[in-house]
Design brief:
46 residues, alpha+beta, two-stranded antiparallel sheet, 1 helix, 4 strands, flat
C-alpha cells in the first residue's frame, strides 16, 4: 500500500493504515514507510 500526492503523484511516507472490523474495532494498525527494507523487515516479523 502506498500514499501518493494527488498533484505530483510522488509517494508520501507516513501513511497510517488501519484494518477495522464490522463493529468498528481496530484489528491491525501500522505506518507505511518509503524504505522498502524497513517495510520488508516489518513483514518478516509477522
Amino acid at each position: 500500500f502506498t500514499k501518493t500526492d494527488a498533484t505530483t503523484g510522488e509517494e508520501l511516507e507516513g501513511a497510517k493504515l488501519q484494518i477495522i472490523d464490522q463493529d468498528g474495532n481496530i484489528v491491525e494498525e501500522f505506518l507505511h514507510f518509503i524504505f522498502d527494507n524497513v517495510q520488508q523487515a516489518m513483514e518478516d516479523e509477522n
